[in-house]
Amino acid sequence: MSSYYRKISDLQIDRDWVKEIIEENYLNFFCPFSNVDSYLNIYKGRDCDVQFFNMQECDYSMEPTRAGIKYIRYLMSVEKSLGNTKSYLHLSENYEKFTVETNEENFMISNSNYNIRSLIEELEFIFMSKICRARIVKLPAGGTMPYHRDETSDDNMRVICPIITSPDVINAFKDKDDEELYYIPASGDFYTFDDTDIEHAVFNNSAIDRYTLIFTVINRNESTNY
Fold it and tell me: Of 28, 81, 95, 164, which sits most exposed with the smallest number of CB within 10 A?
């Protein structure tokens, strides 16, 4: 097992259930960078092929957190240092809205689809905690999700569960000059890693699309079954 990620006990999900949701929403996957109302728009046109199917939406009437504020400030500093004036201004002009968006706990509006609501309820039962920012991520055959860091709060835990994958899909982790490459199988198991300090990437070198269930467990330290 990697020093960068770990399997969460013996918890599992029915992959066929998630595959059914994927099939039902095959046409609803979209490029997250195309949404000008999201901070993710700053990545539009960059070398990233990932597509989202969001199972929850952000409630912009909610409040930001220190982690969300810190993350947007981090992005602003990165864009400014790279000389990406347009992206920097996009973040600056929408600062208050985007700090709300980066508070993952504000993604708590359940999708109206019964199958999706039931899946989220099952995840909350498994982890004995609230589940937020739940989505299924598609990485097309031959696609790349370049190195990045996420905005997960220290109190929460970001979890991934590969649903459809291939041994030719590489999960990469990088800390300073150290890089490790792994294949994480689709077995219904859940995995977690330090997604805020460790840069991570995915390279789909296979001929099939890779799908992964990704969500955040809120107040992970209060959960007792893993």
Answer: 81
Rounded to whole angstroms, the maximal C-alpha distance in the chain is 47
With tokens 């070198």, the residue in question is 205
Q: Residue 195 belongs to what domain range?
A: 5-36+43-57+111-222
Q: Which tens digit of pLDDT belongs to each residue from 125-184? A: 999 999 999 999 999 999 998 887 776 777 888 899 999 999 999 988 887 778 888 899
Cβ-in-10-Å burial (0-12, 13-18, 19+) of 27 comes to exposed
- Residue 110 CA to its chain's centroid (Å): 17
Q: Are strands 107-110 and 56-58 parallel, antiparallel or unpaired?
A: antiparallel
Strands 189-193 and 5-12 turn out to be antiparallel
Q: How many domains does the chain have?
A: 2
In a shared domain, residues 177 and 79: no
Between helix 85-93 and helix 66-81 the angle, nearest 10°, is 160
9 and 72 inside one domain: no
116 and 205 inside one domain: yes
Q: What is the pLDDT of residues 64-74, one digit of tens each?
A: 988 789 889 98
pLDDT of residue 29: 96
Please, are residues 212 and 131 in contact by the beta-carbon 8 Å criterion?
Answer: no
pLDDT exceeds cutoff 60 at 224: no
